[in-house]
Amino acid sequence: MRLGCVVPWFWVFRVLVLKSPASAAGAWRRATFSQHVELDENGKYHLRWKHDNTTITFEVEVETRGYVGLGLSPTGSMAQSDMVIGGVANGRPYLKDYNTLNFDGKLNEDHRQDYRLEYGMENNTHTIIAFSRDLNSCDHKDKIITDNTVRVIWAYHPEDVKQDRPQYHLTNRGRKSLYLLNPVVDAFIPNDVLVFNIRHYNVSIPTKDTTYWCQIFKLPNLTKKHHVIRVEPIIQKGHEHLVHHILLYQCHSILNDSALDVGHECYNSNMPDDFFNCESIILAWAIGGKGFSYPADVGLSLGTSADPVYVMMEMHYDNSNYREGYVDSSGLKLLYTPVLRKYDAGVIETGVWVSLYHMIPPDMSSYISQGHCSMECLQEALSQEKASGIHVFAVLLHSHLAGRALRIRHFRNDVEQPLLAHDDEFDFNFQEFRYLKEERVLLPGDSLVTECQYNTTFRSNMTWGGLSTKDEMCLSYLLYYPRIDLSRCESLPEIAPQLKFIGVKEIYHPVM
Length: 512
Ligand SMILES: *[C@@H]1O[C@H](CO)[C@@H](O)[C@H](O)[C@H]1NC(C)=O
Ligand SMILES: *[C@@H]1O[C@H](CO)[C@@H](O)[C@H](O)[C@H]1NC(C)=O
Ligand SMILES: *[C@@H]1O[C@H](CO)[C@@H](O)[C@H](O)[C@H]1NC(C)=O
Ligand SMILES: *[C@@H]1O[C@H](CO)[C@@H](O)[C@H](O)[C@H]1NC(C)=O
Ligand SMILES: *[C@@H]1O[C@H](CO)[C@@H](O)[C@H](O)[C@H]1NC(C)=O
Ligand SMILES: *[C@@H]1O[C@H](CO)[C@@H](O)[C@H](O)[C@H]1NC(C)=O
Ligand SMILES: *[C@@H]1O[C@H](CO)[C@@H](O)[C@H](O)[C@H]1NC(C)=O
What we know:
The chain has about 500 residues and is mostly beta strands. It has 3 helices and 36 strands. The chain has helices spanning about 10, 375-385, 495-500; strands at about 35-40, 45-50, 55-60, 70-75, 80-90, 90-100, 110, 115-120, 125-135, 150-155, 175-180, 195-200, 205, 210-220, 225-235, 245-250, 265, 280-285, 290-295, 300, 310-320, 325-330, 330-335, 345, 345-350, 360, 365-375, 390-400, 405-410, 415, 420-425, 435-440, 445-455, 465, 475-480, 490.
């Protein structure tokens, strides 16, 4: 959402005039906001916001009588950031636009003040201020707000700003990645919704950085069709950083109750054979996500012969501090209902097939891998079942620690369409299904390319495709309706050109 920056000269020198209702005593009304998040762990800093095509409006409500700060940062640290700081002093709200672009990293007041104070108030315990700005303020000292991941930084202080320079903010600060411009989806959940929890039980987390833990579960025994309409994570308290992502796979119908064993580490030699019968991903959650609601006319079908009976939950534990003694019982909560919706949802996994053939050389600041969902593959599945196409409504972009930007390119008969999804500021610690602004129809004759851009500047070894967070993946999950019989559409990089690229001149053993 890059808007033009041709600004008539007289706007540039426009002086910010506070709207009169901005006084604490004035007759302003608190606006209503479509989005809300608690930025700190103790629920003291609330951020609310809403946006239209050109502007974004924030309201911060913080348990302090001093100043509050909000910033947009390239990395999550305070350096190189766009900051706004405000509060209420002597009954009057104040607000100023700053940046930390200088080498010293200190706050500098922006020459152009692009944040507009809307209102402010404080009582004995809390400060509330609301302010807005253009998504692209046309000031190079402000960050352009796009639909990429945005690393929001926050701070507050017990005292107001004095002598025009905010005091150091002590420990009351932090960061959180958000999608500020995500479409808001009305998540209507009826009162009589049914709940089914899928949880691991007291898994002892090994003392190593990456563990994939798998267990097969049986879905509720239903005598008629139901729709799952929302999925929420159940994260054991204190394990918010340990549980990195959760995938739910549908298992083949040949399984029976003998598959319902205890959990096992997945992808190692002790893994039960039954796990290989669970291949199609039907749900995905990743760290930072809150939960996911299906669109109002779509649900995940349960209870018919085509539906999953057994599912495997794969949980990725990221114990990067090698801490001993974690015992975890996290999982997923499915909200489902017998009141059927019009369409069944499906998921397609596309991108680079996870294998050692996926290679990323070291010391590359921008290396791109591509995974193809070919025209033939899509065409075969679509023309047999849905010649009128399928509607993609949400996607999850997935790579590991070296991933910087991901995008899904969409071609129709080899003519490129607008990007299906992209994130140029990918954050490994914040991955969840994101709604598309508009549903995208995939027709026979279409193909997709998932592109992942990696930065391996500080790596001295090759990075390979694999399951550990230090290995890489390049995947996207497409949530769509109506469901067709296609769960994976991926490609393997060709090995010979890659070996040539990294300087291999001769191969003595066949590479297989
Ligand atoms: C915002 O943009 C979309 C498409 O880009 C357009 O359909 C819509 O009318 C615009 N809304 C407003 C309020 O300008
Ligand atoms: C002060 O404002 C906060 C935030 O709106 C509110 O939750 C709290 O109840 C208020 N306290 C009093 C004493 O009114
Ligand atoms: C998990 O362990 C705790 C503490 O030992 C125990 O209270 C709880 O019942 C266990 N849960 C299950 C499902 O075994
Ligand atoms: C599922 O429910 C049906 C009807 O209540 C019952 O007949 C059947 O035995 C149940 N199956 C299992 C495996 O519990
Ligand atoms: C259940 O599956 C196991 C192996 O997957 C098989 O050995 C067993 O016979 C099956 N039991 C029934 C009742 O079908
Ligand atoms: C790659 O990462 C290094 C180290 O974090 C950084 O200095 C460099 O700017 C990055 N390159 C790109 C293209 O993002
Ligand atoms: C790189 O690979 C070598 C050889 O396998 C290994 O000894 C070394 O520890 C690796 N370095 C890193 C940083 O992983």
